[in-house]
Amino acid sequence: MKKSLITASFLSIALLVGCNTNDMADQPGIYQQNGNTLNVSDREDLYNDRADNNIMTENRSEKFGYVRQQKSPVQGENVSYKNMHTMDREQVADSISRLAVTIPNVDDASVLVTSEEVLIAYTMDAQNKDKRERTAVADQVKKTAMSVVPRWYHVYVTDDPHLRRDIENIATMDAGSNNVKATIDQTIDRMVKESPQGSPMSQGENENGETKGEKYEEKHNKR
């Protein structure tokens, strides 16, 4: 009799735990994940392990994106970076360039994404070359890129066709290439000097998203 009661108690607890666990899963479109990711609004294979692995998609779904992330489910546990996804810079460059050419008067866009900068060379419609129009287009191109990359990134744009080749040359390098930082810095200096960069990003930032004292901001203010 006592054994039957104990067995029944365990079964009841298991059922309660199962029901509790399924509460969130029963909500339409919310799925449980392992580790520190608590809930997502779509299956992982649809946004992390897709064949195209691109942040842009042909899927015209009207669903919102939602993920809840917890630093660690165990208090005091060290944060693990083992399963943390890294940004595919080539895919980000592809996404920015696709968005950029949808902007009116932009016919062509070459995009370079480094670990902290985005450099964009674009071609404007030949009929729209006055300073005001150039500045307006530069602002749109820049803000398009800003909407894709993390906020610590700085974005530099140019409508000078001669600088496109410089950007393409940097694209053949990587972070370990000799003089790559100096080459990037020189290219950015020319982009800022020769092409409009649009309007300041905010009250505390310049046109490229730099705050006071950052590496390019002080040089630009001296011009």
UniProtKB/TrEMBL annotation:
It holds the Pfam family Spore_YhcN_YlaJ. It comes from the Bacteria. Residues 189-223 are annotated as: Disordered. Residues 1-25 form the signal peptide. Keywords: Signal. Residues 209-223 have a biased composition (Basic and acidic residues). The keyword Signal applies. This is Sporulation protein.
